[in-house]
Structure to design on (196 residues):
C-alpha cells in the first residue's frame, strides 16, 4: 500500500518530453494572448479582469499537466514555466526592439488634466476606472493630474499638475531658512563691522 502511494505520487503519467513541451506551448500562447488583449488585462482595473486572469490559470492547468497528477509532473511543469520565463526575460533584455514588440508602447491617458478619450477607448478603460486609480495615488480629481500614462506592464503612472503639498511646504521652509541665514549674516556684519 505504501509503495503504491509513493509510486502514484512520483510516477510520470506522460512522457518527459511532453511534460516539458506542454508548459512551453501554453506559456507562448498566454504571452501572445495577453499582448493581444491589451495592457488593461495586466492592470487588473476591475473585478471582471481579475476574474479572467484567475480563471485563465485554472483553464490552462490541464493543458500544462495533462492527465498526470503526480508531484513529479507538477514540479516538471512548474520548473519548465520558470525556466522558460527566465530565458525569455534574459533574451528580451538584450533585444530592445523585440521587447518593444512584445510589451508594446505606453499610452497617455491624461494630458494637462484632460482625459484622452481615444486612448481610453483603445485600452477599454472607463473614466470611473481611471478616477479610481487616481484616487489610489492620492489625487482628488483628474484635473490635478498633468499626465497619466498606461505603461506596457499595465500600471498607470500619474504626474501631478502642481507639486504635492508636502513638497510645497518643504520649499517654503527652505526659502525661509535662506532668508533667516541672510538676516543673520546682515546682523553679524552690522554688529561687528570689522569682521572680528
Amino acid at each position: 500500500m505504501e509503495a503504491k502511494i509513493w509510486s502514484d505520487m512520483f510516477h510520470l503519467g506522460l512522457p518527459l518530453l511532453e511534460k516539458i513541451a506542454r508548459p512551453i506551448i501554453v506559456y507562448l500562447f498566454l504571452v501572445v494572448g495577453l499582448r493581444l488583449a491589451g495592457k488593461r488585462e495586466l492592470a487588473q482595473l476591475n473585478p471582471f479582469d481579475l476574474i479572467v486572469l484567475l480563471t485563465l490559470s485554472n483553464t490552462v492547468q490541464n493543458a500544462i499537466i495533462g492527465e498526470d497528477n503526480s508531484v513529479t509532473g507538477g514540479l516538471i511543469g512548474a520548473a519548465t514555466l520558470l525556466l522558460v520565463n527566465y530565458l525569455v526575460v534574459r533574451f528580451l533584455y538584450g533585444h530592445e526592439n523585440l521587447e518593444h514588440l512584445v510589451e508594446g508602447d505606453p499610452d497617455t491617458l491624461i494630458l494637462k488634466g484632460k482625459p484622452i478619450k481615444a486612448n481610453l477607448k483603445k485600452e477599454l478603460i472607463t473614466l470611473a476606472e481611471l478616477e479610481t486609480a487616481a484616487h489610489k495615488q492620492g489625487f482628488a480629481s483628474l484635473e490635478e493630474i498633468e499626465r497619466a500614462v498606461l505603461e506596457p506592464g499595465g500600471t498607470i503612472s500619474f504626474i501631478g499638475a502642481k507639486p504635492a503639498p508636502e513638497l510645497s511646504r518643504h520649499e517654503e521652509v527652505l526659502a525661509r531658512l535662506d532668508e533667516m541665514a541672510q538676516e543673520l549674516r546682515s546682523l553679524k556684519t552690522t554688529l561687528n563691522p570689522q569682521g572680528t
Summary: Strands lie at 107-111, 114-115, 145-150, 156-160. The domain at 107-160 is CATH 3.30.240.20 (CRO Repressor). The longest helix spans residues 165-191.
